[in-house]
Amino acid sequence: MSVTSRYREAWEGFWREAPDEQGAVFWDAEPALTVARHLALFEPHLTEPGLPLVDLGCGNGTQTRFLAGRFGQVLGADLSAAALDHARAADPEGRAAYRELDASDKSAAQTLHAELGDANIYMRGVLHQCEPDDRRPLAETIATMLGGRGRAFIVEPSQAAGAILKELATSPSGPPRKLAPVLRHGIAPGAVSDEAVPGILTEAGLTVLTSGTLPLVTTEHTPDGTRIELPSVWYVVGRAG
């Protein structure tokens, strides 16, 4: 299974138009407020920190570059070639490697696992943006890439975040400047219930080792200058058995 051409084209269009500077995209918050907080929750559960680390859905690579400063081998993987162009341009020293990957494609996941072996995974806000039919294949890709030794940190906006985004999108003054391009390209977050996510993971052969809640920081602010934060749920998972 692979993603629809509409979905791929939506992401390509978004990233082709996205500015180069860090922080210009709605979710592109600085690593100190995002991945660094997540690693504090993730690292205690890594059984083999020396495994390759894959930033799945890396976008323009802001979080990937931070991860490359903490782990020996880091790969940023994304569906969008245009996103990876941004990531490579922002990483001229090549601290991380980058790979175009359709994470709903079983054969692509198997090929990458054959190349890297078991890997640890960091994934922020990807599942809720998937087409419904691609959610289970995405979870199966994670299971394939983890193998028997890897662990994954998955963080997704909660249902409550959907209500906040809907309110922002339908504001009488229009959506916030950085959210507007996301909506315009048709890649607004999908509705995945909080109860559904653990089921999607376990059906793909993953075990939820621990979970919790945490605000997901964005780069956008309300008119009064308050930074917009979205409620999120995070999971640390490993392959069952």
TrEMBL record:
The keyword Methyltransferase applies. GO terms for molecular function: methyltransferase activity. This is Class I SAM-dependent methyltransferase. One of its GO terms (biological process) is methylation. It holds the Pfam family Methyltransf_25. InterPro entries: Methyltransf_25, SAM-dependent_MTases_sf. The lineage of its organism: Bacteria, Bacillati, Actinomycetota, Actinomycetes, Kitasatosporales. Keywords: Methyltransferase, Transferase. Residues 54-146 form the Methyltransferase domain.
